[in-house]
Structures are given as structure tokens and as C-alpha cells.
């Protein structure tokens, strides 16, 4: 469950929407602490608290992204294994069908064709006529 949650968070962090939200958040923070009412400013100019908040966000985001990548790697490994097994089955089926086609060609080369049979029967009839005459 935690892995799925981390993947959802990591996916969100990697979107343009998140970048827009973070940009708006930082801009509002800076504007408020520069131009807001003097008695309501809570993080004066070097914005140390903002830096701390962004560092905290980054310290949580990095492990969540790595966890999501590890889970994706596991899924990719399983998918690769399934693809490899399917490719092996397909290769075995192709080899089997190739042998069957080769066997059919050999069998068909031994089968008498209609034209060949007509030709031979025609020669046989001609030979019988010559013997009768």
C-alpha cells in the first residue's frame, strides 16, 4: 500500500501541474514576506524558513521517487521475463511449423500430380496401341 502511495506521489511530483503549484507557492511566499503587512511577515528576506521547507520537501521526494523507480524496475523485470518466455514459445512454434512445412513439401513431392498421371496414362495408351497394331 505504501509503495502504491509513493508511486502516486512520485508521478504527481513529475508533472507540470506540480511545478506550477510549487512556483505559485514560492512566489506567494516571497511576495507575502516582501510586500505583505509588516506585522504578518513570518520569513524575512533570506527566506530561511522557505529554504527549510523546500529542503524538507526534497528530502521526502527523493526517497519516494527512488521507491517508485524500484517498484517500476520490478514490474519491468517481470514483464521482460514474460516477454522472453513468450518469445521462446513463439520460436519453438515457428521451428515446429517449419519442420511441418518441410515434411509436407517432401510428402507432396512424392505425390503424383494430375498432369503427370495424364502424361503417363497417355504414354501407356500409346504403347498399348502400338503393341496392338
What's the structural blueprint in terms of helices and strands?
Blueprint: H1 2-13, H2 16-35, H3 48-110, H4 114-132
Keywords: Coiled coil, Membrane, Transmembrane, Transmembrane helix
Transmembrane segments: 12-35, 47-68
Organism: Nonomuraea aridisoli
3D structure, described in words:
The protein has 133 residues and is mainly alpha-helical. The protein has one domain. It contains 4 helices and no strands. α1 packs across α3 (48-110). The model has no long low-confidence stretch (mean pLDDT 92).
Reported for the largest beta sheet, the result is: none
User: What distance separates the N and C termini?
Assistant: 99 Å
Instruction: Report the helical percentage.
Output: over 70%
Please mark out the parts with pLDDT under 50 across 5 or more consecutive residues, or reply none.
none
The count of strands amounts to 0
Whole-angstrom Rg: 40 Å
* Helix/strand order, N-terminal first: HHHH
Oligomeric status: single chain
The amount of beta strand, in percent, is: under 5%
Structurally, how many domains make up the residues?
Answer: 1
Helix-and-strand structural type: mainly alpha
InterPro entries: DUF1003 (IPR010406)
Protein name: DUF1003 domain-containing protein
Transmembrane segments: 12-35, 47-68
Organism: Nonomuraea aridisoli
Amino acid at each position: 500500500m505504501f509503495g502504491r502511495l509513493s508511486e502516486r506521489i512520485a508521478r504527481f511530483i513529475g508533472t507540470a501541474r506540480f511545478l506550477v503549484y510549487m512556483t505559485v507557492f514560492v512566489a506567494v511566499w516571497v511576495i507575502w514576506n516582501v510586500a505583505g503587512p509588516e506585522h504578518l511577515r513570518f520569513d524575512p528576506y533570506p527566506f530561511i524558513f522557505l529554504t527549510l521547507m523546500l529542503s524538507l520537501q526534497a528530502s521526502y521526494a527523493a526517497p519516494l521517487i527512488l521507491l517508485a523507480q524500484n517498484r517500476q524496475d520490478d514490474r519491468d523485470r517481470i514483464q521482460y521475463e514474460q516477454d522472453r518466455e513468450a518469445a521462446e514459445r513463439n520460436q519453438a512454434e515457428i521451428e515446429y511449423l517449419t519442420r511441418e512445412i518441410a515434411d509436407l513439401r517432401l510428402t507432396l513431392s512424392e505425390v503424383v500430380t494430375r498432369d503427370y498421371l495424364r502424361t503417363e496414362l497417355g504414354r501407356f495408351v500409346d504403347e498399348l496401341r502400338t503393341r496392338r497394331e
